[in-house]
Specification:
heterodimer, A: about 425 residues, alpha+beta, Cytochrome-c3 Hydrogenase, chain B, three-stranded antiparallel sheet, 14 helices, 12 strands, about 45% helix, B: Alpha-Beta Plaits, about 25% helix
Chain lengths: ~425, ~140
């Protein structure tokens, strides 16, 4: 991987990927499999020297057959199945599914249950964004930030545990409402912790806009503009960081978002630095929504009695998961189990944008840029780099690549 | 990069201030297993059954998403002139996801989720709970 021109030796085959012609020694396979992923990704990185000129994603490595499995389970059992598609946004998955089913049943969910759904969904957004912020700190070599943010994230997870009974797999949604009412005296701890998170978010906002380690690794890295975003259709923060204000919570309000109206945060830069600032803004906004929800929450029942069988019909639903728009399609044959469930997760929509973000950057930027799209992360745990000239194949673990990135930038800064 | 260094040195000072502040705090991590574990009241741990309250109706078997519960026959009893098979649940807790759906649906209040969470074992058979079976009325 040197910068000098490497003339094609005779007899070497040229591979092609679509319209791009590349020689095998320029290919860095990136991925693919890690069990922690909901959408494992394999990226073929085609390099010219140190520079990435083309990225070809290939997905579908850990296809678990969840949509098929859903057809074998009853409506209630499927809630717990879909929660396990993704740990971080488990509530968003179950929320989208139960609301799709409620659409077929034409249920009017109690108002208190709708407020509780907003409350838990926003707590989940806060902890998902904080997890992401910490990981950007980790991949850029700013481990202190990673530790601080994950420490603060525990405050949110404690609240989630107090409300739902578990930190990650909340098992809190049910068809026709939520499974349990809020615990008594939850308002005070929620107010206290939200005030703490808002105070910390303010500090982190100052930090990411002034800390040299972060700025040098994120400013101008992975830049996309609004025109490109319109072509590639990303969702969630990746779209909003280009200045396009799109949010399902505003455009098609669900749960109690018609009464608790969030403010859409945007940023115009479109790089990782602006994504950092944007996600911190969204954490702040979510804190405000949680406080508003806990103030305004009405009294009443939290669930109705849902029938075991659902009449014939079909329904679609989308929610704003922490990573972006999450889409569910449910079709009922009229019985105790669905006939078809189709899921489109935000990472699926964002993956092409991530490849566009990578172009023109160096191998050292790959972890940060791929982190920027907030994928399910494990795909970066394994990279194998082929160097044909040296007749050597080496497998790089995520940690080695991280060290390489940190070293690369240190050397570049030094000289 | 060099012209930014001068201004950012101050800002690193800000991060240092935060570092000193945190260094003065007590550590928030606690050594496991010394000291009592902290739970929310609603924490969902290991499932437990009350053999006296269980009637063997089998609703828990139907609703369980993780196929933890299987009903086995424990004999027959007479109701009037008819003979009815009595059943009791066996819990294969090694597949339990602690969702609590069975607890929600048990009309007799026989099931509950305890705060017990240390379920790691080398023998999965040790997690088969047949308490309800042994004390059939």
């Amino acid at each position: 991987m040197s910068d000098k021109e490497d003339p094609q030796p005779e007899g070497r085959k040229e591979a092609s990927a679509g319209l791009i012609q590349y020689s095998p020694e320029n290919l860095v396979p990136f991925g693919p499999v890690h069990p922690a992923l909901k959408e494992p990704e394999y990226f073929k990185l085609i390099l010219e020297g140190e520079k990435i000129i083309e990225v070809i994603p290939r997905i579908g490595y850990v296809h678990r057959g969840i949509e098929r499995a859903a057809q074998e389970r009853t409506w209630i059992k499927n809630i717990y199945l879909f929660e396990r598609i993704c740990g971080i946004c488990s509530f968003a998955h179950s929320l989208a599914y139960v609301q799709a089913v409620e659409g077929i049943l034409q249920f009017e969910v109690p108002r208190r249950a709708r407020y509780i759904r907003v409350l838990v969904a926003e707590l989940e957004r806060i902890h998902s964004h904080m997890l992401w912020l910490g990981l950007v700190g980790y991949w850029t070599g700013f481990d202190t930030l990673f530790m601080w943010i994950w420490k603060d994230r525990e405050h949110v997870l404690d609240l989630v545990e107090a409300i739902t009974g578990n930190r990650i797999h909340k098992s809190y949604s049910t068809i026709s409402g939520v499974r349990r009412d809020l615990p008594e005296n939850i308002a005070d701890p929620v107010k206290k912790e939200m005030a703490y998170i808002q105070q910390r978010a303010k500090y982190y906002k100052d930090l990411v806009s002034s800390e040299e380690t972060l700025i040098s690794r994120t400013k101008g890295v992975g830049r996309i503009d609004a025109d490109l975003a319109k072509k590639l259709c990303p969702v969630g923060p990746l779209l909003r960081c280009t200045g396009i204000a799109r949010d399902v919570r505003i455009e098609d309000p669900y749960a109690a978002y018609d009464e608790l109206i969030p403010e859409i945060k945007t940023s115009t830069e479109g790089d990782i630095a602006s994504l950092l600032a944007l996600r911190i803004d969204e954490v702040n906004e979510s804190c405000r929504l949680v406080l508003e929800a806990i103030e305004k929450i009405p009294s009443g029942p939290v669930k109705l009695t849902a029938p075991r069988s659902v009449p014939k019909g079909e329904s679609m639903f989308h929610v704003e998961a922490p990573r972006g728009e999450l889409f569910y399609y449910v079709r009922s044959p009229g019985g105790i189990a669905p006939e078809r469930v189709k899921i489109r997760t935000p990472t699926m929509a964002n993956i092409l944008t991530a490849t566009a973000m990578l172009k023109g950057h160096t191998l050292a930027d790959v972890p940060v840029v791929l982190t920027g799209m907030d994928p399910c992360f494990g795909c970066m745990d394994r990279v194998s780099v082929f160097e044909v000239d040296k007749q050597k194949e080496w497998s790089v673990l995520g940690e080695e690549l991280r060290q390489y990135g940190i070293k690369y930038y240190k050397e570049r800064r030094a000289g | 990069m060099s012209k930014e260094t001068g201004s950012s040195r101050k800002e690193i000072g800000g991060a240092m201030g935060e570092m000193f502040r945190i260094a003065m705090e007590r550590p928030i991590t606690k050594q496991y297993p010394f000291g009592p574990p902290e739970f929310a009241e609603r924490f969902r741990g290991k499932l437990d059954v009350d053999p006296v309250k269980c009637t063997g109706c089998g609703v828990c078997e139907v609703v369980c998403p993780a196929t933890v519960i299987r009903m086995v026959s424990t004999g027959k009893r007479k109701v009037g002139t008819r003979e009815i098979e009595t059943k009791r649940p066996i819990f294969d807790l090694y597949t339990c996801i602690s969702c609590g759906q069975c607890v929600d649906d048990c009309r007799f209040g026989a099931l509950e989720l305890t705060h017990e969470f240390e379920l790691a074992t080398v023998d999965k058979n040790s997690l088969i709970m047949d308490k309800a079976l042994k004390s059939v009325r």
